[in-house]
Design a protein that fits this description.
- By secondary structure, the protein is α/β, with parallel strands linked by helices.
- The chain has one domain: TIM Barrel, CATH 3.20.20.
- Helices cover 40% and strands 14% of the residues.
- It contains twelve helices and twelve strands.
- The strands form two sheets. Strands 1, 2, 3, 4, 5, 6, 7, 8, 9 and 12 form a ten-stranded parallel β-sheet that branches.
- α1 packs across α8 and α2 packs across α9.
- Iron/sulfur cluster (SF4) binds next to loops.
- Iron/sulfur cluster binds next to loops.
């Protein structure tokens, strides 16, 4: 993804960000039109496949186990439920499904095998599949890629300088490593931030600078407005002004002309007019459906109405890259083979109990 060569330093981006608002919007709308169809907006659906109970301490997040919030925690959804939800999202115009699990990191266990099956199934529905599952190793990224994962979301959230005020249980570098692992596996990177957490404008610019420093900046940059949730350390934060959101979206659009800039959390508190300004400023995607992981989001029919008013069209899938092929997962196939062999042995033992070899008992000291 290209970086605008005119805006690669803190000073230049700060000056851009502080341009009179209408001038900034005009610039952003111009860049947007040069690089994207302004009447197309990607609708993505975000599905929380495992909610709550997360051991991390992200100060904004109601899913952290240490905060007392009203989040309905649940274990990993089963594959059929995910397929049903994906079909519903697709019928309502979504071309991408982002599956989120409140994990610190991916573990190589049965839950991850199930996520691999979810990725294969949703990719076979001809939808772009994105996952946000916490930290990820290079091997795990390869398995996801092999399953047909299109994108991996891992937000930097804020600038490196402000990061320690928000999260203490993992380092900024850990996040950069996961982003690298996704990129090296050939997965499209989705990474962005949250505004309204008490950060300065310099921190907002610092977030963009972190992406500029990357060899390959993210293809997709979600900009979230904090939704303060009771029980989290940020419950008292003031709501983000629409003007701040428009400025951040416009600045991101100009600095990263080719990226998909996503208008993400915080839309419920925005008027239709406010959202229209965000589209004008270069937002090219929204999250659809009534929940954004655990925070409220406008319902599908409200978005359809907004699209009609503004003359927007939902974007088709795979316009920024071809659909990955879902290949069989060797770990799952091996487990299935062993289970089938065991089933065969049991069936034979039931038929000829006298011939059956007793199971070897190993003494464990
Ligand atoms: S943002 Fe993610 S990693 Fe942080 S507490 Fe919430 S679920 Fe856990």
């Amino acid at each position: 993804m290209k970086v605008n060569p005119a805006y690669t330093t803190k000073e230049a981006i700060l000056e851009l960000h502080n341009t009179p608002l209408l001038e900034l919007m005009y610039k952003a709308a111009t860049v947007h039109r040069e690089n994207h169809d302004p009447n197309e907006v990607q609708m993505s659906s975000l599905l929380s496949i495992k909610t709550g109970g997360c051991p991390e301490d992200c100060g904004y997040c109601p899913q952290a186990a240490r905060y007392h919030t009203d989040v309905d925690t649940h274990k990993l959804m089963n594959v059929d439920t995910v397929i049903e939800q994906a079909k519903n999202a697709k019928a309502n115009g979504s071309s991408r499904l982002c599956m989120g699990a409140a994990w610190r990191n991916i573990r190589d266990n049965r839950d991850f095998d199930n996520v691999i099956e979810m990725v294969q199934a949703v990719n076979n529905l001809d939808m772009e599949v994105c996952c946000t599952l916490g930290m990820m190793t290079d091997k795990q990224a390869e398995r996801l890629k092999n399953a047909g994962l299109f994108a991996y979301n891992h937000n930097l959230d804020t600038s490196e300088d402000y990061y320690d005020d928000i999260i203490s249980t993992r380092e900024y570098q850990d996040r950069l490593n996961t982003i690298n692992n996704a990129k090296n596996a050939g997965i499209s990177v989705c990474s962005g931030g949250i505004i309204g957490m008490g950060e300065s404008v310099e921190d907002r610019i610092g977030l963009l600078l972190s992406y500029i420093k990357m060899e390959e900046p993210p293809a997709s940059i979600p900009i979230n407005a904090l939704v303060p949730v009771e029980g989290t350390p940020m419950e008292e934060q003031k709501p983000v002004e629409i003007w701040d959101m428009v400025r951040m979206i416009a600045t991101t659009r100009i600095v990263f002309p080719e990226a998909i800039v996503r208008l993400s959390a915080g839309r419920t508190s925005m008027s239709k007019e406010g959202q229209a300004l965000c589209f004008m400023a270069g937002a090219s995607s929204i999250f659809a459906g009534d929940k954004l992981l655990t925070t409220p989001n406008p319902e599908f029919n409200e978005d359809q109405e907004l699209f009609e008013i503004l003359g927007l069209r939902p974007k088709a899938p795979f316009k920024e890259g071809s659909r990955p092929e879902s290949k069989p997962d060797t770990i799952i196939e091996e487990k299935k083979k062993k289970a089938a062999e065991r089933e065969k042995q049991l069936a034979e033992a039931r038929k000829n109990p006298k011939k059956a070899k007793p199971r070897r008992v190993v003494n464990v000291k």
